[in-house]
What we know:
Chains A, B: It comes from Streptomyces glomeratus. Two copies of one chain form a homodimer. By secondary structure, the first copy, chain A, is α/β, with parallel strands linked by helices.
Amino acid sequence: MAVQTVASTTDSVNLGPAAALSCRECGHRVPLGPVFACEECFGPLEIAYDFSGYDTEELRKRIEAGPANIWRYAPLLPVPADVADKPNLNPGWTKLVKADNLARELGVTGGLYVKDDSGNPTHSFKDRVVAQALEAARVFGFTTLSCSSTGNLAGAVGAAAARAGFRSCVFIPHDLEQGKVVMAAVYGGELIGIEGNYDDVNRFCSELIGDPAGEGWGFVNVNLRPYYAEGSKTLAYEIAEQLGWRLPDQIVVPIASGSQLTKIDKGLQELIRLGLVEDRPYKIFGAQAEGCSPVSTAFKAGHDVVRPQKPDTIAKSLAIGNPADGPYVLDIARRTGGAVEDVTDEQIVDAIKLLARTEGIFAETAGGVTVGVTRKLIESGVLDPTKTTVVLNTGDGLKTLDAVAGTGLTATIRPTLDSFREAGLA
Amino acid sequence: MAVQTVASTTDSVNLGPAAALSCRECGHRVPLGPVFACEECFGPLEIAYDFSGYDTEELRKRIEAGPANIWRYAPLLPVPADVADKPNLNPGWTKLVKADNLARELGVTGGLYVKDDSGNPTHSFKDRVVAQALEAARVFGFTTLSCSSTGNLAGAVGAAAARAGFRSCVFIPHDLEQGKVVMAAVYGGELIGIEGNYDDVNRFCSELIGDPAGEGWGFVNVNLRPYYAEGSKTLAYEIAEQLGWRLPDQIVVPIASGSQLTKIDKGLQELIRLGLVEDRPYKIFGAQAEGCSPVSTAFKAGHDVVRPQKPDTIAKSLAIGNPADGPYVLDIARRTGGAVEDVTDEQIVDAIKLLARTEGIFAETAGGVTVGVTRKLIESGVLDPTKTTVVLNTGDGLKTLDAVAGTGLTATIRPTLDSFREAGLA
């Protein structure tokens, strides 16, 4: 029965190797479509693939000959085979920076790498997930790309829609800071201020999806979420390929909803299953800000469920108090022998500065969280400094300048050599 | 005599194919070293190469097999052959975006491309030139990397020095806006505020270079300028390679000092000479802001010399009133059949928004200048819309948010479907 459904869907919906949507909780399968919750148990739907018929070495060659963006992995993503020919922002294939200076400071001897996603078109990893949602929206015949957001997602959706010729409509709280409004507004789509807070915005968006007024609208992280979320798998693929088709021993991933971490695990598992990397153990570590640490709190307490928190941290892009994928993150951290840890706002700022002065990478607060947690986990002996470790930086410091606003001049002098010498700068 | 000097220098200074410094005015050659002005005529020194012994097809293969950054062109740059193994920011190989939406708006039918240098590590083309200066600094034994700057260059120097393990010291006017100070300070080097304006800062830096206090200091765009400037050649190489080893018919380049435009021409000429591209005509167009348009003013008046101006424009990164390479720019524009044009601040802002809403690229004001000039030159019939055209975007809109600060919400509504419908958004 399930097989029949899949076959008929594959005929009509061309999303490459994506075969069906499958419930993460009960396994119930439905045809590919713009749905996100299981009709049986309300569990989250995710993409089930048909990778049968792939020859490992042929696949590896095909990937290596592909474009320098996420579409090199098109055979592993829910996108049509000709996706690279369509207009989109072509994110991904960002630098995996060998961070030897940072390694020295942290005492890592096994090889430390920063996967720097600030190199994406709108300077955050959101370009990866939005690119997936966009292709699904194309296939489903949507004409408006939408989301609620207070930051990176707004820009990623606005930019991707502009390039792809979609209408975009982004919903934000009406009293957002002017700088963030500008970053979202510049792409020329609809930018709607909602009189209310971020929860009100989200509630309104859910209503809109269920209403005829929302017909033809693809909300990237709601009705397109199963497709959107898969974009994070590309981080796993790139890290492994950039390491020479090798799994890292340890990966430190930021947690907002937790989706990214679960998809990185999914991506690594696929690489093993497809024979593209050797099957050996890896540990995944989750990183949160202390001011929004529901998952690390649950991890440390040994709980399986995550108790919601009210966020209060400078790491706004991670400030989700009730992370949907929290329980799955706990599973993965425990299964792989990893951990979930958190750092204070002060430690976040210190870590941003540490990464900038050692490697010349100016990270968003989320990058301060992962680098700070890495430092903390090394000091506590949880992370093994003799192993190959990859730390994710998912965004750009230019978007969270306020976090390091205290940084400034190291000296002020008169424009004379005497003044220069007096300041001890020679 | 000159040959002997070169030979002995090549033995001691390993900068790959760089053979000597040669005066652009009188041709006098001196050994490679941290000097920038001709001892005979005070003309600018630039790198002379020895490309003899290169086989075209071998070179092409070597480049194509190289890393996805400027070091794929190491055989054509003043850097050691093993440069890619040294710690630096590895800039370049940024996207050449086929801008079909923008082409439609501008009526270009021959293929329109945006070379988007906002994808560089610190989000401007300055990473390219600083990377060259850094390698020269290494070879000359400098330990401090320095510059005067009010913007992109400060960040590029700070970041590159951090990663490469150099001390950095950046000089800025003491009253620079806080946001720009933070962007420069975050990399942890010395950031010195000079009591005075930008001219005072530059005067002081010149004094410092001539003083024992400045020993061991490499000022990227002063005593390392001949090396630094060559970084812009990589823009020409990348554009040609990304077009499939083909010259574009028309290129639109922003003009600050004019150096970038002259080096793009130099790069294209080298590709022709080396047989990497077919030798056919191309036109180079220079783009300025009306509020700082000394070169376009001279071009339109038919002058060979450039009369200095006092800059007053939002395009701060192009605001050099007395551009050192202005006369060379005039030569190139005239020789290739190009032109130099300028646009108002209002046209710059319009062009930033046009590029963002058509291609999802958020450009710095300098990108608004090139896109605006492209539009103007098409309208006036100077630029041929049936020819392949490449427009440079050399920086990131996140760094000049103020320019589009007027951009904002398209509507404000209550969080209800009724309010949504009333606003005409359904």
